[in-house]
Design brief:
- The complex is a heterodimer.
- By secondary structure, chain A is mainly β.
- Helix content of chain A is about 5%, strand content about 40%.
- Chain B contains 20 helices and 28 strands.
- The chains are: A mainly beta, B alpha+beta.
- Chains A and B meet through strand 6 and strand 7 of A and helix 7, helix 9, helix 10 and helix 18 of B.
Amino acid sequence: MNPTSRRLALLALAVLPALTAGCVSPGHDLYLFGSLNPKGRVAGARDTALNGVYRRADDGSFQHLGINYPAMLAGSFDPRDSRVFYVATINGVLCTRDGGRTWRIGTSWDMTEPKGVMVDPNAPDTIYAALPDGLGISTDRGQTWTRRENGLPARGKYTQVVTVDRTKAGRVLAGCETGIYLTENAAQSWRAVLTTKETVNDIQQSPHDPKFWLAATQSAGVLASRDGGLTWQRIPGLSAEHAHYNIAFDPTHPQRIALGGWTYGLLTSEDGGATWTDRNAGLPAKHRVWRTAIDPDTGRLYAAVESEALYISDDFGRTWQNGGMTGARIQSFAFVPKAAK
Amino acid sequence: MNRLILSCLAFATATLLTAQPSFEAPPPPTAPVQDAGQRHEAYLKRVDEVLDWRAGRIDITQPDKHLDMAAIAVLLTRGEHYDVCSQRVIEMMKDPGTGPFWMFPAVCVAYTGRDKLTPEAQKAIREAWRTTRQLRGDTENHWLMYYASLYLMAELYPNEPAETWYSGKSSAENLAESREYLVHWMDELTTSVGQGEYNPSHYIGEYAIPMLFMATWAKDPEMKIRGRMMLDWLFAELAANTLNGVLRGPNSRTDEGSVIERWNALSSYFSWLLFGNTPPTGGYGGWGVYFAPVAKNYTVPEVIYRIATDRSGDYVQRDRARTRRYWRYSDVLSPPVYKINYLRRDYAVGSIQGIVNDAIQGHAWDVTWAEPDPRGKHNTMFSLHPHSSMRAMQSQFATYPEAMITAVTFEGKPSYDSPDKVVGASSYEKIFQDLDTVIALYDIAPGTRFEHINGFFSKDLVNVTEDPSGWIFAQGGRTYLAYRPLAPYHWIPYLHYNGGWAKEKLPLGGRLLVSPHLKNGTIVQAASVDEFADFAAFQAAIKALPLKYSLEPKPTVTMKTLRGKQVTFTYGQTPVVDGTPLDYSKWKLFEGPYLNAEVGGRKMTITHGRLQRILDFNTLTITDHVAKSPTGPYQNRLNSGHAETGPCLAFS
């Protein structure tokens, strides 16, 4: 370990207060993707903090995993083996087959800056990547990548998120600049199912009802689909003036949903999206929630407040406590079944 | 005691040697050196000046403080202190950087030291390329540095398996990917549709240095000649767009320092080094030092040298480039940029058509004048809409809307969200230029951040006169200037960010003309003092020209220019010159007396007098011709000793 790494490792341990051990999920590992020094960084600089992948340890603290990489945006795991996972980074899609010890940049020069990546749980050799100029697919576990964009518009296909339907292989929804596009044949063809004027930032499928989907957008509010993403209706009561960043369903409670964003902070619903409550009390004054997530084992709510810290709530947002990761920009969460190892 | 004496001696020696002779000396003559031998000798002397200066800053007894990668490359080139360099390399490679700005210096050390560093030091370099993730970045110059560096390292260490590289790819895979991108950048982009980072004031180093490395060290003869040809291409463009070595006109990407003090840019270091016609910038441009260890492997062709140093005749250079990539909010990934530079002995006028080529660092137009000594001179006049926009950020960056503006102000672009900034592009600015007349029109949407335009008035202007006619007259150097604001304005002091990382603004002098009106415009005309009996005569000539303008419903100007052109320009509409609409579709990749290339042609013809060089990327050939007598479409005009004064070719 080089001097900086040693220094950073000690720093990371120091700044990561252990979460309550009793609250650690028994069934899932929690991985975070993000950076601890998002501000002031330029290409070529030495990193002054550990960035990239963090995994929650048994004592509840977060331990840095593998390489120090400041621009990891999202990750997705092979359901057959959690040591195999894929990460969207500024260089492209990285793949590890040994739990983060070694990595390969699977994409080439012609794919850059993916914002999202997702393994098809029913065809796990197939991975999709959301690219700023379209969509990439790998059918060989991330070794090689190609574009499959038939049906996407020539322009307006900036893709922020790609979400695979867990009930059917090859059924994927892509959140793009101009709306939501659906494929039902592993990206051989796409069709628009929602048109928007600006980017669709997140698409999530309910863990309780596979036909129920939600989409967070930059300027069209939050939309719901009850037919598997074929049709969408805007959810009343949620503003469309500013961007909504992401959505989290509570796997432990079918009526609970969380919504995160820069302007609105953390909003929750406990009636399936019918009504929403501001849950920013207890978060920092600048409650810029870059990402939210809900623990599938405990229902613990997470709010990654940009450049502040990771906040946790065990009463669904009514009270919060600082969960460490001070100064971090957490780009995404992944809960991975421990049994998958 | 002995140690103290030695330390004092070392300090004194270092102080003596840290002088930057050409930086501190009077400006060099701008006239060309006719004798090729003398020219080359002077070039080698300048290269040695950089090496001497950098070596002179080193206290070899404190390698941890004095030996960075530039210093090591210089020492290795000079054949000095191999053991100390080796030990320092081993130390540095324990804590490497993570991206293209680390990669190309590391390549420089790896190659200059491949037969000089100890095996342990070379192994340390190699190991860093296994262990440390290298970010590719998100700009054109990032990618060029990244792939040129990876290419050369993969050639240096061929046939090695994937697990020995940070990329997780084998030497062969790294080589293939790098080569594919580099060829794509050359063949499909730069030599076909133009650079996205055209005429950069600083980033020219980020292109020239990796290309010099390729030209010098690539084993594959194809990549070697490609590097050489790209150097000629880049420096030909630099030569044709400079006046006395100082880059003029629009820049794809620049910063406050280079926009205001036009000489103060890395491009001036390259002009000094290659052409010897302007002083180098302080510290030889910083990054510029990395060019020096290898610079003796390149000699600028005489035809390019002649273009850089000949301003005996006026000329228009009209080129095409492209914008930075628009990920969103555009029908085209990289819309074309139409740029024009009109260069005369005393001044230059340059512009693009008014497009957001780079939201943060774009510079769209200016009139700049020659100064006998350009150092510290703010020899420019222009206006701009100081736009700050989340939508603009989102169009060119893969980012959420809210965070980016704050982020860029932390990342070397402190002025982006400042209302008094002087750098940056706006979608609310449209520009027309004909020779030395520029019309910039603005139609700013209500609610836009910000709702005014800024006009820059230098501390180095004299005789600034706000005439009752509405014109503001001034003189800069040997250039008369006429600036016409189309809406009411007031003045504020100009405050200057001294470099991209500066945190404070400095009162260096000068003023900003601030016009807080959404529908707005600026007209600027320039002329040499030689063209008029006196300043009053210039003013009278300007005031006598017919001019009509209106701001509603769209800003519109109809005028006769100082050069006799009848121009009508309405915001958002095609300009009309002497009854003929301007036709951008005919714009070539390069068109002028010196540089010519067709869009999609992958071939540039560089001409000066009887000399001609053709860079043909289709055949990877460099062809030199010497004509028995000057030929070519522009040559008669050049021989006549005066510029084209008719319509720009693409207009006629």
